[in-house]
Each structure stands twice: as structure tokens, then as C-alpha cells.
């Protein structure tokens, strides 16, 4: 019953969206003289009928089920998608050729928001922390991504329809199948079975090839649509592959993340920074992942913009000098402990407490969590619908010390927008090992220390005689021994036992007494060489934009009551257009004043639009609300004949004040820069009663 | 003789650069306690010796040859490259893995300059003209680039060393070979031969596969280095190829230009613009070309940032409403006429005159030439070393109406940085033809007109009987006939002659009398449907940056006379760091004041650095001159105890004034925004005598 109704609502929603498009395109044709007025009117009444039908179905659903959530989520998402595509925030790429899944174009307002958001990011992180920003190519030679592990391990499990060859992500199919089993009202699983399914569901992301294969088989998962059998799962590398140079013999990939460009530049960046640590480098740029089945709009795409930070720090001291500035912030933290507990719910906790209780591993990681939370607030994500979720032990790579995902709640559930990871010294060590280039830093002690150190002195003559051409490799391996291993070898050799030694190339040699002298000596040490640890906050700009769209979108009733108006409640700093200027009616004198105000706004660096369509002010407000313009200026006869003031209207409160026209640009500039607030402006200038549809 | 000396100078220059690196790295190690002072001192005196040797060789060269040019060009380029790489403006990518030709990373100052430059571009073009900015993916499905012609024709001719297989660009080899022949002093070519060689040289870029093969054979061009024979030339496609999706059956390429993203969105952009023309769309983004032999640093790379504009306009009227604002500008124009003339030299001419004399094809193209010239001036390219060169007739594509390249003079010769082309309706028609989607605009007449139009009415019954399944294709081809062709067909059919008709799929059919009625009728026409023309200004950001680096770079003698100091004379708006703040000596009170001024600068959006090294002020000025910081603030005891003023020093004039510390941020803000000039500032505030090395 319920699912029938859900389907009907979805169909009704689609019909409304489609008819809306028809009406708009007819209206455009009407202007061009290509359509008749009668045709347009007919389409409009059809649209009204469809809206009523949808509304009735939705009410019926709410009455039957007592829940609003699931279907209003769908409806909200569809309505928002309509606004975003119609207003060209973003649209599928290559539309005239039928589009390609996972690629989107940003149109003018989307492009402006993206720039504003990356600029806020740059000011908030790069300038504030004096980070070293770099820009590296997307095309990357294989060796770099071999070192980072992406060539071997950047894969998803894929299955294919045994008959048609169509490709699917194994984890998506398994998840969908298990969720359907749990929700099956006709044949509900036993309590025990349900628990088993839930456990499997929670761990789908961590299944290995064999356990994934077993699970698919056990639950008889089949190809969607056809119901055919599936191939066994196999790893599919998500990198786009290409070839560099004319010979065709150099394999390259499009980078799957921007981080590697920073790691391979570590040595130059350290030199640039005067050899001093800690320091952070940052990069904003596009990354590429050849997803098996892109879905969910901007949330899983094949080309996307990342903003990544690599904060290099001595692993022995991860305190942060500015930690105090964020210690009192209380973001929602969803720690390992809470995830394993009964309630499974994030809770607010001050970052200071989280560090002192050992919940967040160190101050630097917590500092970036705090800064990230502030960034989300700045760009208009609702902090009450944002949490930081700690990775469970088995989710983390073996080298990682602690990881937290910045997640935002949307109609798609909790969406990971930022990853914050303490990756220890893994990345630099991996590149040192592949490139043979030293990627260490040197910490100079304030005063030299007398320290007992282990010295390994190979006996060159003996090594040469025994190992011949391998002498050099053996010598290097001996010198690279850790102090513990060296002392262990010393003990064995003194007991007359030969010891196996593995070189960095993986060859094994037998070291016998007399080949090496190992001794503890006390010497003056001026400092310490070490491979820095890396703390990595990594942002997905497109995902943050989409989450922000959902949080900013709302509707309100229009004066005419039969329509609902969409509002994009963007924060002024990210809004694509900061202000619109309307002459009240079409008169040259009003137009001239409007033009002058527009030039003032441009000179103040404020993007703006003039709307001289002569539509009612209410209609013009509605249009700019839909693209999220925060401030509207109306020029009326008082502006040119009376005291020279104009009406300034704020989008969300719809409140209006009269501001002298010479001051209006600087007032808006201050509002956009967060140097003043609307309540302050409303207190300073005389209020104006709202007019027209906007009452 | 001369070439021997040239080689020696080059070697000496390289030795100086290398030793300079050694000294710097030793100095860094000295700080870390890894090197001894004596070692560093030895390296420094070695460097001084090498510099003297280089200087002697250069003087000898100038005395022998009487010319400065060629070798000082080399020297200038090498010295500039040293600064750019050492200061990490840009460095070869993937250095720790031995680099890959044609890829560069921008380090912190390069990154900042690039952002500043693209921001100036965006303000100058997008905001000023209300352009519609879009952002499209780099990964592009084959069909788009098939339509644009890139899959078939975006090639360079390649030759390979017959023995080693090494790859070369045929035109580069031929050019180098011909130039060497002309410069051969031992066996100079005859006057007639020299003329033949010069003619061939001028046309190397336009050779076809067979003529290129003939030329290579005629002149016996061989592989550089080995002297081996070469393979015949063959076309090599410059696009990076990849595969989209998991199946591996969808071919994709990295876009070789950003323009196609705009063309495929034309329909949506026109709708977004309310159906009105003309309008312009713009895109800033990365493009990719798998060059056969990348060279010349940033000038020929495999991944680069473009800023492209597509201005859509009715081909019948290419006037521009704002043309008057640029009509009096007099850039250097290098017209076809001047290129074919005796002097072969560009000359200044007002754009108004160029259009009225028909030298530039239309106002819109000339408008963008003017705006481009203004942009170059804004970002610090020397307008006296910039010209617009018109394409010769044979250089242009058959569909192009007129093309001009914005070229900048550098040590590499004239470098093309911008292409400005009137591409007629070619691009939109190509995509219409491939996608079958209508990419036209509709011009509504102010009042409907009575017009004689040609109507083609196919006889469906007859067509169906004769052509059966091809009926539809024939009907469409008939209806798509141009008025001229239709009237021509009418005449022939009336004379009883059958007419051949080719469908858009290329099939040919014979049309006989009675199959179609063609008539002229007079009817009310409300407007006209047309495919818009495109005027395309296309900017290479990296090339402009490099040219700007060369024009901004100069040296001056230091107080100590034995060293020469490099200065990057960046315009303040593009400078990576706008100001540095120096406490005169290391005292807490001075440091605190410096910190406060730094915060003021940051609050005013001005990137800044504090230098508390305690080096002499002269040394600190020299360091910031080298990274092009336009303004330096020195905090001294007068700043904290006296009248509270600070010293403000301008980089190029080295002039200094005393400014109250509370005003210094807003003074610099105004200088950066071009709202005031240094002479104005110098007139307003009391001068300060320069001190230290900077006298």
C-alpha cells in the first residue's frame, strides 16, 4: 500500500516538474512569437491541476503513514533540483550529446558560488595560517601513484551482469539487497537473521574480495533490472589512465587526489620555509575518479574540485600554538565510543575536553576540526546538521593515528564532505622509499646534547670479499638498521649466531661475526633528523556546495497563495549576486539612478544585476530570492525627487529600510564582509513598510 | 670562433648557476649544523671566481662581435630562471622522480600571481561585460571532439630517428636545419638559395604531409645528436586519450581547449540570457596537449590554464555598443599588409582607424583587441613590446573571417599569448550537425515584415512510392534546401530535368518533376532564425605570466658593488605579496608594532610578510625585491616612541616616506587598487632619506 502511494507521489512530482518546464519554454516562445497565448494559458492551468494532485497524494501519504520524512525528502530534493538546474547552478555536462554520467557543468551562478567558496577557504585556511599554496598538474606519471599505493590499491569491487555485461559496484548492490530484506514486510527476517544482516550491512565497506564474493553468493544477489546472475567481484582501479609523450611508453594517470603533488614537493617546500617545521602546504584543484556507477548528483562525480592541506609536523610534538582559539568550540562529535554505544548519536563536546580526554588524538588534529567547523558555518552549512565522525579502528589504514570525517546531513543521509586524518609519516616515507630522495627534516636542539648512540661500522674488506657486487647494498642495509635491530644483531653476532639481513630491494643476506662492528658511543648531538608526520584535512568542494544548497533552500507562500516561492538563503559572502537594483517603474530618471547605484556597487566589488523588466516588485523579488540574492535595492520617486533614499530589502526577513543612496553600496559591502549585521542596519535606518507581493 | 665562445659562455653561466645552488644548500646545512663554516666560505669564493670568469667571457664576446643581443638574451633568461626556480615561482613537476617534460608546479609566489592575474582577467572581462561564466569538465567524450574536428585534425607532424626511435616534431627539425643553413658562415648559401630557404622557412607551419616529407628529403634533415636518417613525417594527435566508465568502451580525451564546453552549452546559455543576443560566455580552466617535444619552460607545456571567451553575435551586425571606449587606443598592429611589405614591422594605429579602413574586420573583434591590450597593461606586460599580428590568409581556417594574435616580445622572440578570431558560425553549425540539436537564435523584428519566401512542399505520396524507407531522409533534405538551391531545383524540374539531391547522411537521390512543389509566397514574417557567429578571444595564462616575468625582471647594483640584485618589478595588483613589515632591530616593542601593522594589512585583504631576521634593512629589502614585493614598511623607535609614523618604501624608485602607522594599510590598499599613485603618496607624506644598503 504505502510503496504504491510512494510511487504515485514520485510520478506526480515528476509530472509537475516536467509541466513546469513546458510552461517556461512556452513562455519563452511566446516572447519570440513562436507560441500562442492560449497555448500558454492552457499549459498553466494544467500545471495547477498537477500541483493539486501532487498535494493531495502527499497529504494522503502523511495521513496513512503518519510520517513526513521519506517522501518529503524526495519532494524536497526534486524541487531543489528543479531550481538548481533551471537557474543553471549546475547541469549535466554534454547535454546535447545525451550527457555522460558523473560529469557536471557549473553555470553562471554555480561558478560564482564555487569561486566565492574557494576564496573563503583560501582566506580562512591559507592566509590565516600562512600556508604554502601550490598548484600541480592533474596528469601524473605512474611512479608517483605507485609510491602512494593508488596503482595497486585504489579500487572498488565490480560485478557484471553475466548475460548483458553491465557493470555495478558490488558494495552498492549488496547494500541495496540487504536493506530491502530488512524492509520486507511480507517475509520479514527473523530477529536473529535481521541482526546478522545489520552486522553485515555495517561492514560492507570493509569486505575483502573473498568475503564480498561469499556474501553476494550467500544472499543470492542478482543484477538489477534483469535478475541475471552476477560475475564474482573483482577489483576495478578508479583512476583514469592515459599515456604521456609521443612514444606511448610512459603510463600516466589523472590524479585521484591533489595531496601527492604536495608530498613530492616536500623538499622544496621545506627549503622555501627556511627549513623550519611545522608548516602546512595547501592545494586547490581538480581530481578525477572513474567511478563505476556515479549517482546522487554532485555527491559522486568523476571530476571534482578538492582543497587539501598537508600540515607537516614533528611526530613527537603535535601540540598547536593556536589551539586555545578553538578549544571552547563545541561541534557535534561522533566518537568511536558513541558509535559503539546504545544511542548511536553524536553529541556536542568542547574540543579542549575531547583532546584532554584522549578522544581526539592531538591538538593539531583538533585544531583543524575546529577550523573546519568554523568554515562550514561561514559558508552557510547548518552547524546543527553537521558532525565529525571518528573512524572506527578497522576503517583506518594501518599507519593512520586518528581520522575524523566532517559529515553533513542531507536528504541523502549523512554525507562525508571533509576527511581529517593524522597519517603519521606514511606518505613521506613511501616517497622516500620509491624515489631514494631524502624527505626528512632536521630539528636543531637549543643546546647540543651528549647522547648515547649506536654506531654501525661495516667491515668493508670482509663485505667486499663475501658479497662482491652486492657489497654496497649490504652496507647500506646495515647502516639503515634501527638502533633496536642493530643492538639485537650485536647480541646475536657476539653469541656467534649469523643474522639474516634484508636489503631495501628485498634481497636477503647472511651477516656473520666480523663483518660489522656495532657499538654504543656517547657523542655530542646537535639535533635530530626525522620524517615529519602529516595531518591532512581534505575538502570536497562540490559536496560542500550541494549540502549548502540543501540547507539554504526553503519555500514560502506568495501573496497570491496559489504558488509557493523558492528561496535560496545563501550567506551573503557566498551568494553569486550580492544585490539587485530595481527601478520601481520604467521611467528614464529611475533607470538612470539605478544605473548609477549599480556602478557604485561594482566599484565596491559587489556583483549585481539590474532588473528593468517592469514586472511587479513582488515578482522581481521572487526571481532574485530564487537565485539567492541577499539584498535588493528599489529606486522610487522619493529617490530622485524626495530625500534621495532608496529601499533596501533583506531576503530572509523581507524587512525593508530606507537608506541614503550614497551609502547603500558601503552598507552592503559591510554586510557581505560580516562587519555589520542586518539587525544593526535595521536599527540604524528608518523602516519601510513592505509593499506588493512581498507583504 | 664566435660559436666556440658562445658555448664557453653558456658553460660558464651553467657553472655559476650550479655553484649558486651549492652555496645555498650549504648555507641551509650550516643552520642545521650539517655543514662547516669553512666549507661554506670555500664555496662562496668559488662562486665569486666563476662569476668573474663568466663576466670576462661575456666582455670578450661583446668586444669580438660588437653585439650584445644573443648572449645577453641567454644570460638574462638564465638569470631570471634562477630567480624563478630558487624562489619557487614555478619548478619542474615530479622533481624527486626526475621530472616529466612539459609539466610545471607553481610554488607559493607563482600560485598567488596566477590567482591575482586570473582575478584581474575576471574583473576586466567577465564582470565588466556581464559575461556568463561556466566551468566544464576536462574529461570529454569523443563525440564532442569529433564534432569540433579535434579527433581528426588536432595533430602535429612527427618524425622518428630510424635507428633509436626517438620522436621529434618535423617542423621544429626543419626550421632548425634551415636556420643553420642560412647562418652557415663557412658554406654560405647562394643568394638565390637563401631566398628559397627563407620562403620555405616562412611557410613551415602550413606544410602538408607530402610537402613536409619532400622538404625533409630535399634538405637531407637528420636526427639531432645521432645524425641518423628520419622516418617520413606522420600526423600525431596531441590529445591525451583515456577511457570513461568501467566497461572501457567509451573513448574520452582531456580537452585541448576550454571553448567546446561553452559551445555545447549554447542552448542553455541562450535561455539563461532570456533568449537575447549578443552575449558572451567565458571559461577559465585547464587544457591539455600531449606535445611531442615540450620546450621553452612555461611557453610550451602539456597542461596549462586557458581563459577563453565566446562572444555570440548575429553575423549580420558585428558592431559593438562600447566600441567608442577603445576606438582611440593605439596598440601596435602588425597587419597582413605590413607583414607582406618591405619593412615587416608593426606600427601603432588607432582601433577606430583600423576598423574604418577595413584592416580589422569588425568592431566587436577590434573591441576585444582593445580590451586585451588594456588587460596586458594592467598586469604588467610592456605595451611597447606587445603587438597584434593578423593571420595571413593561408594561416586561417577556411571558415574564419579574421584572426589576430596578441604577441609579446621575449628572449624567445615574439610569443603568441592570445588568439582573437572571428570564427563565423562554424562551431555551432558543427555541433548542430553532429548532435542534431538546434543551436540557433531567433531575432524578433520590431514590427512584422511582409517577405517573399521560398516554400518547399514535398509530395509525400510520390516520395513514399519511389523512395520507400528513404522517404523521410529525402523529405528532410528537400526541406533543408537553401532558398538559392531550391529555386535552382525548381527551374530544372520545370524544364523536365531530374536533379540529384544529397541527404545529410551523404546518400544521393534523384528528384523528378512532380515529387516536390517549390513556390515563392509572400507572408508575414515576425523574425529570423539564424546560427550566431562567434568571436573568440583565447588567453594562455601561463604564457602571459612568463612574458610578464621577463618584462618585470631587472637588476641593480647593490651598495657593496660586488653583487647585482635582482628585482621583480611586478605591478602591485599582481604581486604575490603586497607588503613586508620589518622591525628595524630585534626588540619586543618593535615586533609588537610590526605584528599589529601586519594584522591591519591582513584585515585590508593585503597579503604580507614579517621579516624579523635581524638582517640589515638593505638585505631585507633585497630579499623582498627579488620576490617583487612592491611596498616595505619599516618600524623604528620613532614608530613607538616618537610620532608613531613608519617608513614606507616603494620598490622601483626605492623612495621612502613617513606615514602614520594607522594610515599605512589604507594607503597601500589604494596603491594596489590603482586609486592613487606613488607620486601622489610621495607628495602627500614627508620624504625620508634612504638608509643602509638601499641608499
UniProtKB/TrEMBL annotation, chains A, B:
<keyword id="KW-0966">Cell projection</keyword>
<dbReference type="InterPro" id="IPR045864">
    <property type="entry name" value="aa-tRNA-synth_II/BPL/LPL"/>
</dbReference>
<dbReference type="InterPro" id="IPR002315">
    <property type="entry name" value="tRNA-synt_gly"/>
</dbReference>
<dbReference type="Pfam" id="PF00587">
    <property type="entry name" value="tRNA-synt_2b"/>
</dbReference>
<comment type="subunit">
    <text>Homodimer.</text>
</comment>
<dbReference type="GO" id="GO:0070150">
    <property type="term" value="P:mitochondrial glycyl-tRNA aminoacylation"/>
</dbReference>
<protein>
    <recommendedName>
        <fullName>Glycine--tRNA ligase</fullName>
        <ecNumber>6.1.1.14</ecNumber>
    </recommendedName>
</protein>
<keyword id="KW-0963">Cytoplasm</keyword>
<dbReference type="InterPro" id="IPR000738">
    <property type="entry name" value="WHEP-TRS_dom"/>
</dbReference>
<feature type="coiled-coil region">
    <location>
        <begin position="40"/>
        <end position="74"/>
    </location>
</feature>
<feature type="domain" description="Aminoacyl-transfer RNA synthetases class-II family profile">
    <location>
        <begin position="79"/>
        <end position="572"/>
    </location>
</feature>
<dbReference type="GO" id="GO:0005524">
    <property type="term" value="F:ATP binding"/>
</dbReference>
<dbReference type="InterPro" id="IPR027031">
    <property type="entry name" value="Gly-tRNA_synthase/POLG2"/>
</dbReference>
<comment type="similarity">
    <text>Belongs to the class-II aminoacyl-tRNA synthetase family.</text>
</comment>
<dbReference type="InterPro" id="IPR004154">
    <property type="entry name" value="Anticodon-bd"/>
</dbReference>
<dbReference type="GO" id="GO:0016740">
    <property type="term" value="F:transferase activity"/>
</dbReference>
<dbReference type="InterPro" id="IPR033731">
    <property type="entry name" value="GlyRS-like_core"/>
</dbReference>
<dbReference type="InterPro" id="IPR002314">
    <property type="entry name" value="aa-tRNA-synt_IIb"/>
</dbReference>
<dbReference type="GO" id="GO:0005739">
    <property type="term" value="C:mitochondrion"/>
</dbReference>
<keyword id="KW-0030">Aminoacyl-tRNA synthetase</keyword>
<keyword id="KW-0436">Ligase</keyword>
<keyword id="KW-0067">ATP-binding</keyword>
<dbReference type="InterPro" id="IPR036621">
    <property type="entry name" value="Anticodon-bd_dom_sf"/>
</dbReference>
<dbReference type="Pfam" id="PF03129">
    <property type="entry name" value="HGTP_anticodon"/>
</dbReference>
<keyword id="KW-0648">Protein biosynthesis</keyword>
<keyword id="KW-0175">Coiled coil</keyword>
<dbReference type="InterPro" id="IPR009068">
    <property type="entry name" value="uS15_NS1_RNA-bd_sf"/>
</dbReference>
<keyword id="KW-0808">Transferase</keyword>
<feature type="domain" description="WHEP-TRS">
    <location>
        <begin position="8"/>
        <end position="68"/>
    </location>
</feature>
<keyword id="KW-0547">Nucleotide-binding</keyword>
<dbReference type="GO" id="GO:0004820">
    <property type="term" value="F:glycine-tRNA ligase activity"/>
</dbReference>
<dbReference type="InterPro" id="IPR006195">
    <property type="entry name" value="aa-tRNA-synth_II"/>
</dbReference>
Amino acid at each position: 500500500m504505502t510503496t504504491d502511494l510512494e510511487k504515485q507521489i514520485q510520478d506526480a512530482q515528476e509530472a509537475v516538474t516536467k509541466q513546469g518546464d513546458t510552461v517556461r519554454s512556452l513562455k519563452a516562445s511566446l516572447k519570440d512569437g513562436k507560441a500562442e497565448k492560449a497555448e500558454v494559458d492552457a499549459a498553466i492551468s494544467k500545471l495547477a491541476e498537477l500541483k493539486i494532485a501532487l498535494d493531495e497524494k502527499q497529504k494522503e501519504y502523511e495521513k496513512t503513514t503518519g510520517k513526513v520524512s521519506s517522501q518529503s525528502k524526495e519532494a524536497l530534493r526534486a524541487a531543489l533540483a528543479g531550481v538548481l538546474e533551471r537557474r543553471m547552478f549546475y547541469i549535466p555536462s554534454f547535454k546535447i550529446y545525451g550527457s555522460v554520467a558523473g560529469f557536471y557543468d557549473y553555470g553562471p551562478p554555480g561558478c560564482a558560488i564555487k569561486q566565492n567558496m574557494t576564496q573563503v577557504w583560501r582566506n580562512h585556511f591559507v592566509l590565516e595560517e600562512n600556508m604554502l599554496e601550490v598548484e600541480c598538474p592533474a596528469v601524473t606519471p605512474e611512479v608517483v601513484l605507485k609510491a602512494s599505493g593508488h596503482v595497486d590499491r585504489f579500487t572498488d569491487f565490480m560485478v557484471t551482469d553475466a548475460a548483458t555485461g553491465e557493470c555495478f559496484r558490488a558494495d552498492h548492490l549488496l547494500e541495496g539487497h540487504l536493506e530491502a530484506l530488512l524492509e520486507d514486510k511480507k517475509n520479514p527476517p527473523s530477529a536473529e537473521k535481521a541482526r546478522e544482516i545489520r552486522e553485515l550491512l555495517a561492514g560492507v565497506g570493509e569486505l575483502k574480495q573473498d568475503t564480498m564474493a561469499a556474501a553476494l553468493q550467500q544472499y543470492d544477489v542478482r543484477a538489477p533490472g534483469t535478475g541475471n546472475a552476477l560475475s564474482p567481484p573483482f577489483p576495478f582501479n578508479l583512476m583514469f589512465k592515459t599515456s604521456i609523450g609521443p612514444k606511448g611508453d610512459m603510463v600516466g594517470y589523472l590524479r585521484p587526489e591533489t595531496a601527492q603533488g604536495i608530498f613530492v614537493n616536500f623538499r622544496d617546500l621545506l627549503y622555501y620555509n627556511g627549513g623550519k617545521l611545522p608548516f602546512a602546504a595547501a592545494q586547490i584543484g581538480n581530481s578525477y575518479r572513474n567511478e563505476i556507477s556515479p549517482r546522487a548528483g554532485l555527491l559522486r562525480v568523476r571530476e571534482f574540485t578538492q582543497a587539501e592541506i598537508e600540515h607537516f609536523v614533528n611526530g613527537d610534538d603535535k601540540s598547536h600554538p593556536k589551539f586555545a582559539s578553538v578549544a571552547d568550540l563545541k561541534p557535534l562529535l561522533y566518537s568511536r565510543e558513541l558509535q559503539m554505544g546504545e544511542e548511536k548519536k553524536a553529541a556536542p563536546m568542547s574540543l579542549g575536553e575531547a583532546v584532554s580526554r584522549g578522544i581526539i588524538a592531538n591538538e593539531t588534529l583538533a585544531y583543524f576540526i575546529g577550523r573546519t567547523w568554523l568554515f562550514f558555518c561561514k559558508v552557510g552549512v547548518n552547524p546543527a546538521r553537521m558532525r565529525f565522525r571518528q573512524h572506527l579502528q578497522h576503517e583506518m589504514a594501518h599507519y593512520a593515528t586518528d581520522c575524523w570525517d566532517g559529515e553533513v546531513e542531507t536528504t541523502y543521509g549523512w554525507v562525508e564532505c571533509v576527511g581529517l586524518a593524522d597519517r603519521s609519516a606514511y606518505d613521506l616515507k613511501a616517497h622516500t622509499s620509491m624515489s631514494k630522495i631524502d624527505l626528512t627534516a632536521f630539528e636543531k636542539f637549543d643546546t647540543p646534547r651528549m647522547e648515547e648512540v649506536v654506531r654501525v661500522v661495516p667491515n668493508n674488506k670482509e663485505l667486499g670479499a663475501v658479497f662482491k657486487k652486492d657489497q654496497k647494498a649490504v652496507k647500506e642495509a646495515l647502516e639503515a638498521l634501527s638502533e633496536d635491530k642493530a643492538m639485537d644483531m650485536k647480541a646475536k653476532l657476539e653469541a656467534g649466531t649469523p643474522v639474516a639481513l634484508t636489503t631495501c630491494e628485498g634481497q636477503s643476506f647472511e651477516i656473520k661475526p666480523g663483518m660489522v662492528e656495532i657499538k654504543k658511543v656517547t657523542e655530542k648531538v646537535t639535533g635530530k633528523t626525522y620524517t615529519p608526520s602529516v595531518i591532512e584535512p581534505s575538502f570536497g568542494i562540490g559536496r560542500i556546495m550541494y549540502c549548502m544548497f540543501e540547507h539554504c533552500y526553503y519555500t514560502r507562500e506568495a501573496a497570491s497563495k496559489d504558488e509557493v516561492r523558492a528561496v535560496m538563503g545563501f550567506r551573503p559572502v557566498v551568494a553569486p549576486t550580492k544585490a539587485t537594483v530595481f527601478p520601481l517603474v520604467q521611467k528614464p530618471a529611475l533607470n538612470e539612478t539605478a544605473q548609477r547605484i549599480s556602478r557604485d556597487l561594482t566599484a565596491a566589488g559587489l556583483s549585481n544585476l539590474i532588473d528593468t523588466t517592469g514586472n511587479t516588485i513582488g515578482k522581481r523579488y521572487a526571481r532574485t530570492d530564487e537565485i539567492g540574492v541577499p539584498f535588493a535595492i528599489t529606486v522610487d520617486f522619493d529617490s530622485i525627487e524626495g530625500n534621495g533614499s532608496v529601499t533596501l530589502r533583506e531576503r530572509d526577513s523581507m524587512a525593508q529600510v530606507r537608506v541614503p543612496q550614497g551609502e547603500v553600496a558601503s552598507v552592503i559591502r559591510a554586510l557581505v564582509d560580516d562587519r555589520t549585521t542586518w539587525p544593526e542596519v535595521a536599527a540604524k535606518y528608518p523602516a519601510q513598510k513592505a509593499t506588493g507581493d512581498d507583504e
